[in-house]
Amino acid sequence: MEHKHEHTHDVSSLSGQKILWVSLLNACITLTEIVGGIMSGSLALLSDAMHNFSDTLAIILSYIANRIGSKPKDDKRTFGYKRAEILAAFINSLVLSIISLVLIYEAIIRFLNPQTIETGLMLIVAMIGLLANFLSVMLLRQDSKHSMNIKSSYLHMLSDTLSSVGVIVGGLLIRFWNINWIDSVLTMMIALYILKQAIELLKESIDILMQSAPELDYEAIQKDVEAIQHVNNMHHVHAWRMDESKIFFEAHIDVDDQSLSSAQDILHSIENLLKERYNIHHVTLQLETDQCCDPSIFHE
């Protein structure tokens, strides 16, 4: 167990370093697009610069949450500080959802009222942005599979990368074929994709913050636990997630009247069952004998 804890801490620290580098990259992209947008007169680049600026703030928030989440448990936070990362994921996914909706609205307005776009400098700046955004996505891709906080930053950078691709493709179509409406269509497609991803992350982060029960087969758990010798009933079950990976489980277990050493063997059997079959590693069990008048699995 100690080895696993150290490994998790190392991953968290490494993720924090990656987020810091991505923040610096994104800040550079923002400045480049602002200068490029002003010099080329491209409203699209200036809008993308504002998008990148909001992403920079979001990524910095992820970095701060990552550092807070790495702090050890203390007498003020006996469960630790990992919820800081879930809170950051909630804020980031909410902001990303709002940005996506604004982009969809702007895309509709521009589709109805196409504007002339200068594509020379715009394409150069967009290609620089694409390269930097792609590098950021690669830096965060692996860790995004294991952390909601990192995933929220990864989605921000993915949206920027897709936006850069859209700007480049749209710029080429406008430059060579004068298809001005393509910019709005690409923007809407990208925004809808990112909105779907952001809403899924938002729902998951809300579930964790609200201590919603994880998806477990509670009837099967009850059946397996009550199949253990000397166990009569499992009731008053509560289960929740501290973060995206840790499941906490507590329950009352009605057992035959017996010695404390025998009861300890039952505890170990239940803990091993929950760990090996259901991937639950944080278990709190209260043993009792003929104490509960309501044997239902869920009880207030």
Q: In terms of topology, how is this protein built?
A:
Layout: H1 2-40, H2 43-69, H3 83-112, H4 120-141, H5 148-177, H6 182-209, H7 218-226, E1 231-241, E2 247-255, H8 260-278, E3 282-288
Parallel strand pairs: 2-3
Antiparallel strand pairs: 1-2
% residues in beta strands? 5-15%
Q: Assign the structural class, choosing from mainly alpha, mainly beta, alpha/beta, alpha+beta, or little secondary structure.
A: mainly alpha
Order of helices and strands: HHHHHHHEEHE
From the spread of the alpha carbons, the general shape counts as elongated
Q: How far apart are the first and last residues' alpha carbons, in Å?
A: 32 Å
Strand tally, please? 3
Can you give the mean pLDDT? Answer: 82
Question: How would you explain this protein's 3D organization?
Answer:
The chain is mainly alpha-helical and 300 residues long. It has two domains: 2-209, Alpha-lytic protease prodomain-like (Up-down Bundle), CATH 1.20.1510; 218-288, Cation efflux protein, cytoplasmic domain (Alpha-Beta Plaits, 2-Layer Sandwich). Helix content is 68%, strand content 9%. The protein has helices at residues 2-40, 43-69, 83-112, 120-141, 148-177, 182-209, 218-226, 260-278; strands at residues 231-241, 247-255, 282-288. A three-stranded mixed sheet has the order 1-2-3, covered by helices on one side. Strand 1 and strand 2 form a beta hairpin. Helix 1 (2-40) runs antiparallel to helix 4 and helix 3 (83-112) runs parallel beside helix 5 (148-177). The protein is elongated.
